[in-house]
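agent> fetching stored inputs for the C2E docking request
agent> found them:
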Amino acid sequence: MTISDQYVLDHFDEAIVKGYIKAYFQPIVRTLTESVCCAEALARWEDPAHGLISPVDFIPVLERHDLIYRMDMAILSQTCAFYQALQDRGTGVHSFSVNFSRLDFTKPGFYGDVEGILDAQGVPHEAIKIEVTESVMFADEEQFQKVFDMLKAAGFTVWIDDFGSGYSSLGLLQDYAFDLLKIDMLFMRDFTHRSRQLVASIVKTSKALGILTLIEGVETQAQARFIKSIGCDAIQGFYYSKPLKPEDFLAFLSERAVESPDEKQYWNQVGRFDLLSLNPFDQGKAASTVAQSDIPLAMIECTWGRGDYVYANDAYLASIKSLGFDSIQALEHFYNDKISLHYNPMKNLLIEAVMKETVQEVDYVSGDVFYKFRAKCIAKSKALNKAMVIATLNTFREDATVKNMSELVQYSQALYASYEHVNLCFPDKNASIRLFSKANFQTAHQLLGLRDGIRSFAEKEVHPDDRERYLRFFNMDTLDERVSSNKGFIQQGFRIHDMNEVYAWHQVRITLVPTVMEKMYIYTIQAMSDISTRIAELLIREHPEMLE
Ligand code: C2E
Ligand code: MG
Ligand code: MG
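agent> prediction call returned; pasting tokens
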């Protein structure tokens, strides 16, 4: 039912005073996690005589009669109150977006009023996202620029709404540093090949400019899946939920994960990565494409000792199939399973990538397929104890070169298999590099540098009764002398954590590696045979001095 302009004008004042005009909230969902990261406040008029009136029926009238400002401030105020109510319940959504008419920006008191409403209710500026439509700039560009700059300087986030529906879209991106671009729902309504290509290129362009993206009007699973495949950050639409009354919104939240501020920061960092890049490890340099990338690409979230996939494209799924895994879940199980006896090149590489922040690479052979696994960390959060790694997994079938490489890699894998742990140490640089490990030692030791790393390792992984001896064994001040007066290496047995974190006897050896470049030692840990273990037990009881 449409309402006459006159009805709107006659009853607007009463509707504001009595609270008939209300903010409803539509959830906005983070594409990769599906948790609620924000909600948009949308005005609804619950009229006692006419029932629910849609904003399209009263907003244009209010705009024509210069009444919209009052309504927008009322919606902002309700949103702030709702934000606080949610915080008090401890189920907070930590950000809300609010729509502002382009006319609002022409009001001299606009900035002061917005700030006043937030400050009065104790709402932090970053909690409220200011949505403006493209047409806003036409009203008075100079005035808009002034307000825009003030808002940004005061820590507000400004979003551009209905992007792509007007004529000036691209120019706007050049002139204003918007934080997020809301792609108009018209692209989802059509959802043709052409509109999909357009959306993909808008997302790509935004990433290049450091702007986050959200798409509105997502109604189907197919649309949501497409949005995920192109790396758009957030989704809003009936697929997740309609705009809801505050009480229904609360009920919705109780069934969903809600994003914390730390998570928001982390995921916004992840969002800068372009999933469609032809050169995923060095973005910005490469030529680009709009089609889904043929590069087998995945995003893996790493916490200590675990890696979980949050994204994998079709090419990546094909690669892992050829490795013998039916699904991502099967692969995850394989390398998150701590007691697996296999040397796990993927897991090792992920750990290296998180520590080093440069591209890491490992070659691996399985059957007649040669793998190149590359990984790089793109986001890290100390607060969440998480890091996001992007990875590619290329497979090469056997040909002459691949065969040679395969054999070499296979042999070195075989060689490594007899060790628990192999490190290279550079005493002059106070650094070490892990070459191989099937143990569960904390990788943090290595980050401390060689000397502190040895102490930390002794503390965490070596049996208390063997610690002092272990530190003497590793004494860097006398190492050169001890090694050269022996046969180029020193070796002792210690009780060290095994893969199940139980102390077991291990042979530790430090060998000088002859290089001309810099002083380098190779440090290996090897399990002891049963008989050597019995001898070690005997010695430690009867003649501990003989172990040194
Ligand atoms: P908008 O800001 O682009 O808001 C999104 C509109 O799309 C909303 O319509 C929402 O209900 C609708 N929508 C969301 N998901 C879907 C979907 O999956 N499919 C379809 N077909 N529609 C979806 P609504 O609430 O009728 O608002 C219409 C417009 O009115 C808004 O467009 C906004 O421009 C304006 N508006 C709403 N509330 C306010 C307000 O408080 N102040 C101002 N100035 N304008 C407002
Ligand atoms: Mg909007
Ligand atoms: Mg919109």
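agent> quick read of the result: Residues 418-547 form a domain with the Beta-Lactamase fold (CATH 3.30.450).
agent> awaiting further instructions
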